[in-house]
Amino acid sequence: MCAMASRGRRGGAPTREDEPRRDKRAEQQAPAPQGPVLPPPPPVDYGVFMQGLVQAMQTQAHTQAALQAHLEAQTHYLLRRTGVVGDDTLAEEAVETDSERGD
Length: 103
Known about the structure:
Layout: H1 3-6, H2 24-27, H3 46-81, H4 88-101
């Protein structure tokens, strides 16, 4: 007998190798569902489903791109405000505005 087969069970009888193992939890049946029994769902039109899925993914991609652009603009703005990064285009625009006013 192998080590596993020589171990005793809860009832004290040793396990035999040719005896099928039973799990008491598996023998219990699931409780009956309570409430009304719903009819099966209608058939799925997978073409329509896939179109909706593609549209949702495109919307998500556009939203993600817009959020990324906003985050980059906000980061650049904050870096300029704190003096970490200079912006040559703003300096050029300021000079043009000053010259237009006659300063």
